């Protein structure tokens, strides 16, 4: 069995402004280590699949940067979407490319901007998911909840399957706090980590069955796969595909879904408040990066890109200096950073976007 990792590198990462910008979104930032999240994602696949089997899906603005961050990536393995159409068309594009090489090849679809603390545990789980997928299931990895989180979707799990993994009873939207607490207390819910493993032919059959409105476009792309005409066909066809997530398009409809439990130090690094999950804190609970001086501060995230940053008497606060902009926000409001980007757009402050 050959494994084909597909790293999804689209997205703008507006919750990490002012570090993230249109040309440098979240996946290109060194948030969890000294390397960009995209590079970390590719490197944790070492030993599972060669780089020649790895694909990256992204938009035209980020293509050159993405290619540079994954050393040895073949030119043909950089799949550039002409326009963003959400995850279902992006995954369909990757499945077509793999199917042209290896119809029963197993794809592992991975977000480019997540963190994994236990790489060996992650690799064991992904290898087991690939084994289950080889038998015809579409496998999603469910993350064992560490807390009643309201920022994630959940998967309700059922009985064990003969081939491994468990049945999916239901996919749940992001809950309120009370519901999240009930999910965690019940013990049969996992976080939806957005990681999917499946055979190329199985997923293409699922698209045909559950998203027939995409089939005409996919047929045209499949016919052109591997030919010189493919870029032109992609440019013409892809913008016409429906903009829908793989969750809504396939996962919530298909019957051959299996969920595999994952417990490998996962974090989606969803905001600055999540930085302490992926970086060590000092004795006062502060996470500091760059040239910064803290006095009488506790549980703060302080990131300085270029200048010396001094913070005094602050608690549970995020302070970020990118050189041309400064952000100060309470940690519990860090999800609202995207509103700053919206405000800057409204004021046409394009140099800061």
Describe this structure in words.
Helix 3 (about 85-100) packs across helix 6 (about 200-210) and helix 7 runs antiparallel to helix 8. The chain has two domains: about 5-265, Spore Coat Polysaccharide Biosynthesis Protein SpsA, Chain A (Alpha-Beta Complex); about 270-350, no CATH class. It is built from eleven helices and 17 strands. It is globular, with a radius of gyration of 21 Å. It is of the alpha/beta class and about 350 residues long. Helix content is about 30%, strand content about 25%. A five-stranded mixed beta barrel has the order 6-9-7-8-10. The N and C termini lie far apart (about 45 Å). It has helices spanning about 35-45, 65-70, 85-100, 120-135, 175-185, 200-210, 215-225, 230-235, 245-250, 275-280, 335-345, and strands at about 5-10, 55-60, 80, 105-110, 115, 140-145, 155-160, 165-170, 190-200, 255-260, 265, 285-290, 290-295, 300-305, 310, 315-320, 325-330.
Short précis:
The chain is an alpha/beta fold and 353 residues long.
Jot down its keywords.
single chain, 353 residues, alpha/beta, Spore Coat Polysaccharide Biosynthesis Protein SpsA, Chain A, 2 domains, five-stranded mixed β-barrel, four-stranded mixed sheet, 11 helices, 29% helix, 24% strand, globular, mannose-1-phosphate guanylyltransferase, nucleotide-binding, nucleotidyltransferase, GTP binding, mannose-1-phosphate guanylyltransferase (GTP) activity
CATH class of the largest domain reads Alpha Beta
- Put simply, the count of helices is 11
Q: Strand arrangement, largest sheet?
A: 6-9-7-8-10
Average pLDDT, rounded to a whole number, is: 94
């Amino acid at each position: 069995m050959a494994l084909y990792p597909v790293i999804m590198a689209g997205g703008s990462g507006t919750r990490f402004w002012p570090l993230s910008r249109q040309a440098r979104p979240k996946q290109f930032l060194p948030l969890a280590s000294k390397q960009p999240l995209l590079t970390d994602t590719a490197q944790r696949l070492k030993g599972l699949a060669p780089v020649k089997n790895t694909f990256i899906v992204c938009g035209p603005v980020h293509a050159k940067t993405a290619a540079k961050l994954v050393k040895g990536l073949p030119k043909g393995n950089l799949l550039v979407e002409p326009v963003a159409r959400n995850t279902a068309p992006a995954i369909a594009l990757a499945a077509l490319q793999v199917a042209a090489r290896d119809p029963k090849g197993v794809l592992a679809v991975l977000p480019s901007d997540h963190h994994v603390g236990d790489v060996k545990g992650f690799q064991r789980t992904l290898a087991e998911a690939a084994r289950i997928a080889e038998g015809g299931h579409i496998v999603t990895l469910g993350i064992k909840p560490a807390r009643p989180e309201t920022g994630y979707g959940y998967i309700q799990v059922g009985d064990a399957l003969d081939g491994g993994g468990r049945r999916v009873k239901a996919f749940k939207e992001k809950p309120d706090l009370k519901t999240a607490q009930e999910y965690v207390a019940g013990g049969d819910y996992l976080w939806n980590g957005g990681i999917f493993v499946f055979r190329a032919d199985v997923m293409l059959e699922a698209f045909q069955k559950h998203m027939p409105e995409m089939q005409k476009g996919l047929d045209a792309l499949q016919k052109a796969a591997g030919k010189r005409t493919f870029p032109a066909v992609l440019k013409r066809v892809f913008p016409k595909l429906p903009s829908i997530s793989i969750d809504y398009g396939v996962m919530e409809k298909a019957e051959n879904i299996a969920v595999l439990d994952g417990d490998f130090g996962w974090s989606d690094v969803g905001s600055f408040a999540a930085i302490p999950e992926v970086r060590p804190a000092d004795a006062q609970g502060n996470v500091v990066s760059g040239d910064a001086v803290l006095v009488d501060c506790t549980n703060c995230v302080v990131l300085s890109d270029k200048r010396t940053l001094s913070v005094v008497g602050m608690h549970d606060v995020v302070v970020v200096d990118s050189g041309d902009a400064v952000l100060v926000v309470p940690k519990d409001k860090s999800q609202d950073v995207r509103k700053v980007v919206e405000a800057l757009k409204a004021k046409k402050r394009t140099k800061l976007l």
